[in-house]
Amino acid sequence: MALDFSFSPEHEAVRDMVRRFAQDKMAPLVNEAEENEVFPRELFRQWGELGLLGVRYPQADGGSGMDKLADCIIREEMSVVCQAFASSWSAHTHLGIWPIWRAGTPEQKERFFRPALTGHKISAFGLSEPDGGSNIRALRTRAVKVDGGWRLAGSKLYITNAPIADFMLVAARTDPALTMDAISLFIVELPNPGFVITKLKKESVRSSETGLIHIDDAFVPDDCLLGARTGTYPVILDSLAENRVGVAANALGMARAAFEAASRYANDRLVAGKRIGDYQAIGHKLADMAADIEAARWLVYHGAWQVDQGTLDSAMASKVKLVASETAVRVSENAIRILGGAGIMREYPVGRIHRDTLLYVIGEGTSEIQRNIIARSLGFKS
């Protein structure tokens, strides 16, 4: 049987549409947004109107009815233009609402999920904490049952979209036992008197607004316990595994952007009457970059295909993220080297791109965590 590695006409149409939108509507906003470290909220409404916020959710639930391949195409194309915008899109469309779609009650889906698909509500996902990072087992935020709801206390750190979110999924320990059913998700409407959100100053993805959250005796009503049940820890694990493939597509887009900028510069810049790309040292760098990107691209989309087939496991998700994120760092660093002094000037995008690539060798599980997961899948203790 012949293997067909081409995208469908529908997927190509999505790529063309997102590429045009990113260039025409997103690109003009980048410099000001990055300089002021403010996310242009109007983008969420525009993404909603185009159906980009619900691309991988069924039409019956208000989505566009496509798949993970389309989701990754959108991520890649947005990330070519601005990773900060793509990061906010990612935190909203997957981490912030996927668990509601997967495990929420019909009332929760109507109240939170559907408005999020249109961009009328912005979501965030509160998991990482100051002491434990993304180590879910080290979670310290507590939820105590009271009349009519729960009282939450704890803290969350590095939460994308927190300063602009209308609601946030918050992971909290509902039982002190170290068991899978001891951690639950709550949907917290914002503002909430018990939530103090401080916007953080960042060197990477500056216009994607990120927060530190102090939670002090915050009341959350019973109808905002996700799925009306405790023990939604497995939903968190499934969400993180799938999103690792997603952020790998983000990394792929950044690698592409850095490579394209370096290629243009190597073609235009003349030294001794010769394009610098014609010098072997530069040409070989570009060749390595092109090969790395091509390898990462097929691994990313193979992972997306596995998501759609229901065959993705945690080790494969880690392989996809590890390769794509490290490729983006390596390619963007080489792009700076090719541009030389121009590479650290704001006139060119490669410095910003390299700065942004570092997000995904840390976020969504560090490269070291991915290697641990892969090693364990091989039968080794890490």
Q: Which sequence of SSEs, written as H and E, runs from N to C?
A: HHHHHHHEEEEEEEHEEHHHH
Indicate how many domains the architecture comprises: 3
Reported by name, the CATH topology of the largest domain is Butyryl-CoA Dehydrogenase, subunit A, domain 3
If classified by CATH, what would the architecture of the largest domain be?
Up-down Bundle
Query: What's the Cα radius of gyration?
Result: 21 Å
Kindly report how far apart the N and C termini lie.
39 Å
Widest β-sheet, arrangement of strands: 2-3-7-6
Q: Give the structural class.
A: alpha+beta
CATH class descriptor of the largest domain:
Mainly Alpha
The unreliable regions are: none
Strand content: 5-15%
Average pLDDT taken over every residue: 95
Write up what this structure looks like.
The structure is a single chain. 50% of the residues are buried. The protein has 382 residues and is α+β, with helices and mostly antiparallel strands. The protein contains 12 helices and 9 strands. The mean pLDDT is 95. It folds into 3 domains: 9-118, Acyl-CoA dehydrogenase/oxidase, N-terminal domain (Butyryl-Coa Dehydrogenase, subunit A, domain 1, Orthogonal Bundle); 123-232, Beta Barrel (Butyryl-CoA Dehydrogenase, subunit A, domain 2); 234-377, Up-down Bundle (Butyryl-CoA Dehydrogenase, subunit A, domain 3). The chain has a 4-stranded antiparallel β-sheet with strand order 2-3-7-6, with helices on one face. It is globular. The two termini are 39 Å apart.
